[in-house]
Design a protein that fits this description.
Dna Ligase, domain 1, Glycoprotein, Type 4 Pilin, alpha+beta
Amino acid sequence: MSVISYQKLSKGELTQLLDIAREAIRGHLSNGEIKAPQLDLYSKKLLEPAACFVTLEVNGELQGCLGTIAAHSPLVLEVHNKARASAYQDHRFMPLTKDQLDKLTIEVSVLSEPERLEVNSEQELLDYLADNKVGVILTKNHKQALFLPQVWEKLPKPIDFIRQLKVKAGWNAAYWSADMVVSTFTVSSIKGKYF
């Protein structure tokens, strides 16, 4: 499946994606029927398969973040599904409540296709990241972890960024293996308040 060229998404298209995420959360909380986006309302670009993440914060603290690195379905449906999952199915957090909505911010990130980065050591990776604040995926055997580029705001030093990413995957912070697969990506994102 082809992945949309996220750079070509306009601010208007990103705003539509943010609105889809809001509606997915609103529909779940209303106890009504949760309706998927009506596909004929969107441009061809937003109907192409794309990978995305939806991140939720309440009072600036993470409340949920789920997504995919592989494009499986139209972007509008991915955003809808990931918004609901981030709000109610991220097992790290209690499900979102109505009381949290006035302090809720939603961020939708559309990912570029990940590209493998050939590095011979962890130090080579750290040197690369000193000049390239990109999203990173570490993979070895059946373990994998991903940080969006936005994580650089909280972990600005490459060594801290990579150590925390390794811990997220279930490795020791000091762990490194010669057969670690490193992939990088960029995002096009939009962030806004729920209300």
